[in-house]
Amino acid sequence: LLSTVCLAAQGLGPQDAGQNPKARNLQVRGRVLGTDGVALAGVRVHIGDPGKVTTAEVLAMAGPTTAADGTFQLPWQWLPDAPWEEYALLVAQKGHASLRLWLQHQQLPAEGSSMPLDLGDLVLDKGQRFVGRLRGGDGKPVAGAIVTATDLVQERLGGMSTQVCSTRSNDAGIFDLPCAQPSGLALEVHAEGHYRLRRQPIAAGTPLELDLQPSGRIEGVVEHDGKPVPNAYIHATFETGGTETGRSDANGAFRLDVAYRGRWRLHAHVVQGQKPLQGDSKLGDGAAKGIVVALQSPSADDVERKLLVKAVAKGTGAPVRAFRAVAAWGENPAEPWLRHNLRAQIAQAKPATTGELAVGGPAEEGPAGVLYVVAKGHAPLLQKDVAWSSEQQTVTVELEPEASLTGTVRDPATGQPVAGAVVSAVEAGTPDWQPEPVPAAAEDLVKTAADGTFRLGELGEGEWLVHVRAEGRPGIEPMPVTLQKQEARTGLVFDAPAGGVVAGKLVGEPIGAGWRVSLEPVGGGQSFYGSPMHWGGGGRFFFTEFDDGVVSAAGTSQTVAADGSFRFTGVALGHYTLQLQLPRSPRAGQGLTLPIESFRVRAAGVQRDFDMQGDVVRSLRGRVTFPAAATAAENLVVIAEAAGSTDPWQHQGAPAGGRAAVGRDGTFAIAVVPGRYRLSVYDLQLGILVARTKAVTVKATDATCDIAVPLVAVTIECKPAASATMALFDRLELRAVLAADKEQGNAVDLDDQYDMGAGILLEPGATSVQLALPHGDFAVFARSQAMRLRVKDEGPSGSLGRVELSVPGDGKTAFAIEVAAPPTIAEADPVDEKPADEKGKDDGGR
Questions:
Q1: What is the Cα Rg of the chain in Å?
Q2: Could you give the CA distance from residue 191 to residue 193 in angstroms, rounded to a whole number?
Q3: Other CB atoms closer than 10 Å to residue 700's CB: what's the count?
Q4: Distance separating alpha carbons of residues 268 and 266, to the nearest angstrom
Q5: Residue 763 DSSP class
Q6: Looking at per-residue confidence, does 517 or 723 come out higher?
Q7: What is the Cα–Cα distance from 688 to 799, expressed in whole angstroms?
Q8: pLDDT tens-digit map of 521-537
Q9: How confident is the model over 750-766, as a mean pLDDT?
Q10: Per-residue pLDDT at 217
């Protein structure tokens, strides 16, 4: 039933999915906690298209919820041809800020693996209810509009899961958002036949009486060879704002809203059998009817090229019927990076069964490639300078007989064999932090037999590193082995010690719900555990398959029991730090890790109480004040960055670290562990940092750091440059060098070619805006999405206008930014070949 509901929400029926040979039936699991670490039961969980099912509708469903321990497991039918926007995990409960997690961004299990997609712990913040009203241009209520509140903190500063809440307006135009963040939100309204409306930032208390303006629709049909094409994806890209997406119906007809002002272009695509069809419309402007988007079959240049690979045994010429192969074209990294990348791909490739296999060819004719081929009983082959041309689309490769390794894995203390250990080999020189590829099928793993013996084949001439992993035992140093062609090396012996046990109990402080502990090697080095989805402790990833027959990985941490107890087995002897990992809000930035104690693990292991008295999370509190011009305090976020860290984005965006939204009264509180921090203040409206502090030390008690932000009221006026026509633009983007950073000699790239994606939204028709800016140097750019209207090559985004200013500088507080004329976008040729003195003139291209 759930699968049917999910598919219906995506605009697909079970029949559509069942007929798709690429569909995969997966399982998604996780656990939902509050910010206090307590498991949340009864939370609604749903997989679907957030553009078609709202948070309010998820709350009203009779579908699955989390269990008493906060866990859930959902079926998910993944259709790889569907747009990524259709697959989101929606998590909602009244009283908490709801979550949206795009599943396409996660690492899918290997093809053929039964391992579920484990999302781990999902933390929900406390939520806020927002109520507002929508009216149309005629003053009447707008019903059925989708209203979405998105966490602007995460949108600007990053995060895998996003706190999003959505609902529909009722017949009176009233909308009720049941579970959003209390501040720092971007509100977007989507109503049929109206321009999309976006307001940001908003907070509790912001008036939400919103007026929508009618815009009309774009209507037409998708055709191929004069016949309508049903179920095609349609994307409208607009000069300002964003995109609008839809599907053609059974008659090939479509209808999209004119969601944003300015010009637009439509792109349609569909896959029929193995043949991708796609096409673009001419440029449009405003409402339109009778638009025909003609899909074109792939041209000779666009068609997916294939190289047919045939394999034979070297010396005999006998065909090798079963093998795997992948190819890489153009510039490729040096070995062993190249081999590693190809090994990762080939682990998932489907094998040939008839002695020949088609692999992907080059994007265009000309560049040479490399071919990587593996087959049972043969050495792996990396063949360089492989050519593809319209005349030569087949290559025959000769495979050498394999070299092999035979040996035993034993316990050095008892001499007893170790059964079930996983043995693998990688080319020498492979970076130690590179993950080992996951085999496509569990049976491809090489494991020791009951007597501890193993045979590792499919090796070639050269230097190899042999790895051994065993459940409940620490990883051992890889053994280097040099092999000759067809060599059968025997007698290898690997000692896999049982490792130590680290067990005990956290005492001295109340145990918090949702706490986890991990062991991290002091000074880095190889950890005794790895994880398939998270880097941890400087250790490399490794994958194992044990009694349940599922390809899985050992975890880097474990949950602390209610009495504070925990237990690690198979710990490599050495020096470790026991670390406590605490639940953290999705918008609060980096995870919070508290070091408890360092110790050495010897053969006898460690089993005792760990006193964490005083080792608790502290609060770094303060108040933001404005000595001169003020801004809305709830538009600010304070970020605590470890003092002395070097963040490459610290001048362009915001530093990484724990963060907290500022309250309406200017107060903030960030959970930190003892240490030295530098605080930065980020303005959600401006999209820049507006203040930095000196280092603050947090010791055994909470710390206070008030921040005075001297702001100056500045007016930016937009006016046309050379002509009377000014291009449409949707926002002003700022780049800044704060006065304090300038005094320290820090520079910032003020180039306009890279669009940071942030900025001040202007009301339609507005030509001036008043801002509260800190002391420093600024560049302001007028931005639009015009370059995205090109058919093939978007090119650099650039800007439509630019002004540089210094605050307070010479005391000037009013500046003008000259905005260019509407850029010319060719109907079909994406390359603007006009002379430089003609570029930017409107020659009727719109």
A1: 30
A2: 6
A3: 9
A4: 7
A5: P
A6: 517
A7: 18
A8: 887 544 443 322 222 22
A9: 80
A10: 95
Q: Which two tokens stand for residue 59?
A: 């709350």
Alpha helices in 254-383 (DSSP H): 337-346
Lookup: tokens for 674: 């003892």
Question: Which class for 597: exposed (0-12), middle (13-18), buried (19 or more C-beta within 10 A)?
Answer: middle
DSSP 586: G
Q: Report the 10 Å Cβ neighbour count for 17.
A: 19
- Residue 342: count of CB within 10 angstroms of its CB: 25
Distance, CA of 129 to CA of 181 (rounded, Å): 8
Most confident stretch, 46-50, 289-293, 744-748: 289-293
User: 7 near 87, Cβ under 8 Å?
Assistant: no
At residue 81 the predicted structure's pLDDT band, cuts being 50, 70 and 90, is low
DSSP result, 462-508: EEEEEEEE-TTS---PPEEEEE-TT-EEEEEEEE----EEEEEEEES
The rounded distance, in Å, linking the Cα atoms of 269 and 537 is 45
| Cα gap 244→236, rounded to integer Å | 5
SS3 345: helix
The answer to whether 426 and 436 have CB atoms below 8 angstroms apart is yes
As to burial, measured by CB atoms within 10 angstroms (0-12 exposed, 13-18 middle, 19+ buried), residue 133 is: middle
Report DSSP letters for 225-272, one per residue: TTEE-TT-EEEEEESSS-EEEEE--TTSEEEEE--SSSEEEEEEEEEE
Q: Dihedral of the CA atoms 809, 814, 816, 817 (nearest 10)? A: 60
Residue 675: pLDDT band (50, 70, 90) is confident
| Cα(662)–Cα(203) distance, integer angstroms | 11
CA 390, chain centre distance (Å): 38
807 three-state secondary structure? strand
Per-residue pLDDT at 52: 87
CA 273 to chain centre: 30
Look at residue 650 and tell me whether its pLDDT is greater than 90: no
Nearest CA to 130 out of 209, 192, 52 is that of 209
Q: The whole model's pTM is what?
A: 0.80
Whether 617 and 580 have beta carbons less than 8 Å apart is answered as: no
Distance in angstroms (rounded) separating the CA atoms of residues 785 and 789:
8
Half-sphere exposure of residue 528, counting CA atoms within 13 Å on the CB side? 28
Amino acid at 174: I
Residue type, 482: T
Backbone φ and ψ for 110, nearest 5 degrees, come out as: -65, 150
Cis peptide before 336 (omega within 30 of 0): yes
Exposure letters 168-181 (e unless 16+ CB within 10 A, then b): bbeeebebebbbbb
**∠ CA(783), CA(786), CA(791), 5° rounding?**
150
**Spatial contact of 130 and 203, defined as CB atoms under 8 Å apart:** no
**Cα separation, 217 vs 478, whole angstroms:** 64
Q: Quote the CA–CA distance of 611 and 606 in Å, as a whole number.
A: 14
Neighbours of 167 (CB within 10 A): 24
HSE (CB half, 13 Å, CA atoms) of 114? 6
Structure tokens at 336: 């062993």
Q: Which alpha helices (DSSP H) does 257-372 contain, by range?
A: 337-346
Q: How far is residue 771 from each of residues 228, 732, 775, measured CA to CA in Å?
A: 51, 11, 13
End-to-end CA distance of the chain: 49
Q: Above 50 in pLDDT, residue 551?
A: no
Smallest CA-to-CA distance from 423 within 323, 496, 528, 500 is with 496
Average pLDDT over residues 680-698: 92
Please count the residues of the chain.
Answer: 846
Tokens of 489: 């090396």
Q: Is 330 left (phi over 0), alpha (psi -120 to 50) or beta?
A: left
Tokens matching residue 827: 């109907």
CB proximity list for 415: less than 8 A, separation 6 or greater: none
* Distance (Å, whole) CA 599 – CA 15: 59
Average pLDDT, the chain: 83
